[in-house]
Amino acid sequence: MNLNERCSGVLAHITSLPGPHGSGDFGPGAYRFVDWLASAGQTLWQLLPITPIGPGDSPYQGVSAFAGNPWLVALEPMVAAGWLVMDELPAFDAAKVDYGQVTPWRELQLRKAAAGFFAKGDQKDFKAWCTSAASWLDDYALFMAIRTPLNGQPWWAWSKGLAKRDAAALAAARKEHAEEFAFWQFVQWQFDVQCSALKAYANGRGVRLMGDLPIFVAHDSADCWSRPDLYDLDAGFSTRVVAGCPPDAMSVDGQRWGNPLYLWDRMAAEDYAWWTARVKRALSQADVFRIDHFRGFAGYYEIPGERMDARVGQWLKGPGKPLFDAITQALGPLPIVAEDLGFITEDVIELRDSLGFPGMKILQFGFGGDGSHEFLPHTWTRASVAYTGTHDNDTVLGWWRSASARERAFAGSYLACGEHDVHWAMIRACANSVANIAVYPLQDVLGLGTEARINVPGVLGGNWAWRFTDAMLGQEPARVLGLITAASGRGPFELLQLPA
Fold it and tell me: pTM for the whole thing?
């Protein structure tokens, strides 16, 4: 994808899609949403990470940087293939994902489908795919096969032989858990088949997919277990230091994310092969991707592992340009959007610009200062991706209702709006800006309040649950969004339907 192209799109997580099975997935609801985007003149669909979820149902703390989220696998294709017969559906909530109800039910359906496939399906394509994906699939499937009967016990608490990946222990585990191993292979195969089909359909309708790549991996992950030498761990595989960010105006204790930190010198010694493989995987699933916490590649904050807050820590130099040069050498030009928010220093800006990656501009942030604020549209550059807000922010309407009187007055003057139309005013301001790319969370297109917020950073539980229905989309939001898109030069001018 050409990041210098003037275009726009919508941010909506796969789990937020409509559907009968408790959460959004790669099923019919995803295809209907692509059709809706196309009808509104949008050429970009930004997703949140589609890797497995972790604690708090977060897609940023999953057990693999390469595997797909099993709960995004649609069930309809497996029913159509004759592998799955579903019983009567539970009474799922159409407005939110109840992970406690949905996850075990979906896993049961996937296990039934796998049993049906292995009993009567043609395994030629499956076996060929397993061979092609073996570099990451084998470790992930074995990790899950060992972990599942242990009720999710972390890998460093496994038997010494398994934790240290003793060859004899691994061979015994593969034999003991052969059926479970095959199940997780099957799930990932179906994930890839369905993800590829959705991407092909979207591209065919002129819609590109934007993925989301978290910078760090979880400690309890197949990645960390399979290559512990690439992470800063002690002799017992505990995290010696962890990732996070220091205290600021938003958090007096800072943020302790808890991810293990990379040993960049060891990754460099392998010419960053792990990162190249990871980016190659991301680009097989999306046309462009946002890389989270980009500043960590210039400099990252290291917190002692035993600390429960981020008050104590130090900044260390990141891998910088050599990392991306190595990936580019292997894969060619990289269609990457740099998430350059937060504590940004000159070295971060220099790295971003030297790589030619566009940064992010969040309009909601622009009204806390004066007319020179860097997040006001008249200060932006073309090499930017403009957002009304992100998945970590309140919705535009929620922001307006909770903002200070000064912020509302400033925003009202700048955008010529009030509470009833602030969402369209912010969308229009982003669309009319010089930024090459503009992206709007779906909640803002629909004019929804705080009740539709998908994530509150630092809060464990209750996040990642918001869903919309087909009826909420309707023709009117698509019509208005299409008009704004056409008038701002981001979509077909014909959408305006001007009189002769």
Answer: 0.96
